[in-house]
Each structure stands twice: as C-alpha cells, then as structure tokens.
C-alpha cells in the first residue's frame, strides 16, 4: 500500500471534487449539444464558432472549453481550436460506440445526484423512498443503452456459433425480458435477430407507454410487445426459450424475488435459458476495495434509500439453484456479471 500522508489524503479529496465537477461539466456539454458539435468538428473548433453554431453565450462557453481543457477532456491548438483528447470522442461524442458513456453521466447528475441529496431523511428513518418519479425511467434507459448493446454483441458475436442460445436467437426464439424498462433491450435484439419475437414486462406504466410508442415508431410491433406487469405477476407457462433480467434482479424487493424467479422458470420451455445480467456484491471486506466489485458497491450506495439490497454471486447462485435452474455459468465484464442458467 502507498504511504499515506495528510498531503496524499488532500489530493485524494481534491480528485473526488474535481471528478464531481467534471461530471457536471460533461452533463452541461451533452445537454447543450456541445459534445455532439465537438464530435462533428474532428479538426477542432473555436469557442466563438461553437457558441455561434449552438446559439450559446460565448463568454460562458469559452470558460466551459477552458475548463474541459484543464480537465484534459479537450485539447486545444495554437489557434484556440478545441477538440476531444484522443479516445475521448468515442466515450463522450460518438453515441453509436460501445464505449459511449454520455448516458451514465446523465443518470449520475439527473437521477442519482438528486436522490442522494434527498436521502438524508431516509438515513434517519430507515424508510424507503417511494416517491421515485416514473419519468426517470427514460434517463435509466439512456444510461443502460450501451449495456443493452453489449448484450446484443454478446449474443450475436461473443457466444460461440454453436452455443444453443445464439443458435436459437438466430433460428427464431421466443424471448421475454423481465424488468424491461422502456424496452431498450428487446428493441435492440429484435433488430439483430429478425426471426425472433420478444415480450418485455415491467411494473412501471410510464416505461411501458414510452417503450410501446418507440416500438411502433420503429415498425416492430409485429414481433415486439411490452406489458405492464411485475415479474411476480407473470402467468406464462412454457412459452419462452429465453428469459432475461438486465440490471433488474437487484432492484426487485427481497420479499418477492423468489416468486419472480419461480415465474421466470415457469415461463420457460424445457431446457429454456435464463440470462441474468447484474452486479454481484462483495462478501468479504477485502473485496470492497477490489475494482472488480466497485460498480456494484457504488450502485448499492446510489440506491440505498430506494430499499434496494444487492446480492452476492453466491446468493444469486443459491436462489437460482433453489428455483430449479441448472448449469449456471457466469462471466464478469467490467464489474457486471453475465449469468446464464438452464431450466
Ligand atoms: C435499472 S432498471 C433496468 C431496466 C432495463 N432492464 C434496462 O436495461 O434499461 C430496473 C428495472 O426493474 C424494474 N422492476 C422493479 N421491480 C420489478 C418487478 N417486481 N418485476 C419486474 N421488474 C421490476 C424497474 O421498473 C426497472 O425498469
């Protein structure tokens, strides 16, 4: 371990403060279209030209650019033209990139930040914050879009060609996504796997309405539908080849988790597959400082006042086994586990 000193701890705190402000700077840049304009202007653009194009107040925009330069998000040439530092364009400018993180910044500032400010009373009372605005589900969707594309990539390219899930998706699977939010995953998969049909269920009516509208706009209503329903209310029996839960299992209240898993199990055909993508929470103190667990540790903190309780890998496996699932396979990618199990 590095030697600690007052100086090193002050530096650590300053870096946290700087990160907090950098995240806000990026959020401002995304909301005002600055990031998009910088991504388009590959050879660089002056603050003056940026302000003109976007109809923004030039002196403020200049300070934004200078600060982004200070944070080493932007570079600047001797003609004061700004552009993304190498590799930052794909992270903050290119929405089609699997490395794009604009949605993560959006949720950090516009959902989590507000919730953490409001969490003080819940720390005192131990109550659960039930006043979560449904409209925030669209920001959640924005933040999970890249993850859902990664899942599409996992199913269509990472799994071996002879993997039964990949084969089934290609030949034509019946697929249910439990906790589908606004239907990001089912829509994306429907575009990748033209022979398969998809149902998404979620208890939040706003998400179902917003997602159904997008499905219609994309002309996918023949193969994709969403239903307002919690996993504990599912009544399908032996209907699906694959059931998924993407960053949903940890959000299901502990008292109904096993009934959701039971229903997922029942909804699957014989030898059907469960695909669970979620965080696994550390069980040993050492692992709280293990970078592999960091996203889950931080997500649990973010969602404390919602009464959400994350599960460890062992607890997840135990629940799946108790439900009847077999052949549980798990891979970890950047702090997120992809789990598949067979009925
Ligand atoms: C973090 S969001 C993920 C949404 C979606 N899977 C995605 O990737 O964008 C978790 C979702 O779980 C849903 N959820 C909460 N309780 C649920 C339950 N009892 N059954 C099914 N879904 C539930 C929430 O409404 C929310 O849409």
Structure in words:
With 343 residues, the chain is an alpha/beta fold. The protein folds into two domains: 6-92, Arc Repressor Mutant, subunit A (Orthogonal Bundle); 136-342, Vaccinia Virus protein VP39 (Rossmann fold, 3-Layer(aba) Sandwich), CATH 3.40.50.150. 48% of the residues lie in helices and 17% in strands. It contains 14 helices and ten strands. The protein has helices at residues 6-31, 34-40, 47-54, 58-70, 88-92, 102-118, 120-125, 137-158, 164-171, 184-192, 205-217, 257-267, 294-302, 313-323; strands at residues 45-46, 74-76, 81-84, 174-178, 197-202, 224-228, 240-246, 268-278, 326-333, 336-342. The strands form two sheets. Strands 6-5-4-7-8-10-9 form a seven-stranded mixed beta sheet, sandwiched between helices. The protein has a three-stranded antiparallel beta sheet with strand order 1-3-2. Strand 5, helix 11 (205-217) and strand 6 (224-228) form a beta-alpha-beta unit. Helix 3 (47-54) packs across helix 4, helix 6 (102-118) packs across helix 8 and helix 8 runs parallel beside helix 10. It is globular. The chain starts with 5 loop residues before the first helix and ends with a strand. Bound molecules: S-adenosylmethionine. S-adenosylmethionine binds next to helix 8 and helix 10.
Structural class: alpha/beta
Name every ligand kind in the structure: S-adenosylmethionine
Query: How many helical stretches?
Result: 14
Based on CA inertia axes, which overall geometry fits?
globular
What's the CATH topology name of the largest domain? Rossmann fold
Mean pLDDT: 96
How many independent structural domains? 2
Which CATH class of the largest domain is shown? Alpha Beta
Number of strands: 10
CATH level-four homologous superfamily name of the largest domain: Vaccinia Virus protein VP39
Cα-based radius of gyration, to the nearest Å: 22 Å
- Which CATH architecture of the largest domain is right? 3-Layer(aba) Sandwich
Low-confidence stretches: none
**What is the rounded distance between the termini?**
46 Å
């Amino acid at each position: 371990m590095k030697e600690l000193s007052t100086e090193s701890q002050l530096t650590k705190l300053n870096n946290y403060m700087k990160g907090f402000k950098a995240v806000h700077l990026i959020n401002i840049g995304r909301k005002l279209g600055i990031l998009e304009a910088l991504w388009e202007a590959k050879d660089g653009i002056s603050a003056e030209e940026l302000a003109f194009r976007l109809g923004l107040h030039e002196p403020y925009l200049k300070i934004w650019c200078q600060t982004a330069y200070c944070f080493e998000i932007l570079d600047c040439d001797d003609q004061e033209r700004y552009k993304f530092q190498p590799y930052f364009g794909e992270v903050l400018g290119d929405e089609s990139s699997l490395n794009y993180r604009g949605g993560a910044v959006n949720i950090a500032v516009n959902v989590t930040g507000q919730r953490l400010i409001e969490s003080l009373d819940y720390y005192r009372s131990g109550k659960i914050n039930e006043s979560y605005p449904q409209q925030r589900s669209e920001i959640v969707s924005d933040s999970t879009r890249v993850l859902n594309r990664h899942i599409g990539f996992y199913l269509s390219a990472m799994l071996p060609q002879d993997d039964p899930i990949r084969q089934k998706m290609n030949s034509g699977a019946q697929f249910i996504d439990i906790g589908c939010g606004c239907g990001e995953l089912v829509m994306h998969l429907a575009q990748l796997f033209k022979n398969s049909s998809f149902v998404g269920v979620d208890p939040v009516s706003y998400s179902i309405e917003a997602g159904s509208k997008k499905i219609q706009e994309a002309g996918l209503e023949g193969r994709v539908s969403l239903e307002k329903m919690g996993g504990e209310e599912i009544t399908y029996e032996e209907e699906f080849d694959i059931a998924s839960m993407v960053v949903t299992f940890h959000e299901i209240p502990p008292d109904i988790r096993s009934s959701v898993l039971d229903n997922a199990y029942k909804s699957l055909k014989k030898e059907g597959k469960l695909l669970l993508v979620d965080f696994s929470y550390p069980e040993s103190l050492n692992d709280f400082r293990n970078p592999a667990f960091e996203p889950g540790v931080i997500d649990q903190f973010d969602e404390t006042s919602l009464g959400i309780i994350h599960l460890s890998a062992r607890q997840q496996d135990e629940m799946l086994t108790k439900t009847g699932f077999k052949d549980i396979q798990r891979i970890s990618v950047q702090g997120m586990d992809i789990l598949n199990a067979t009925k």
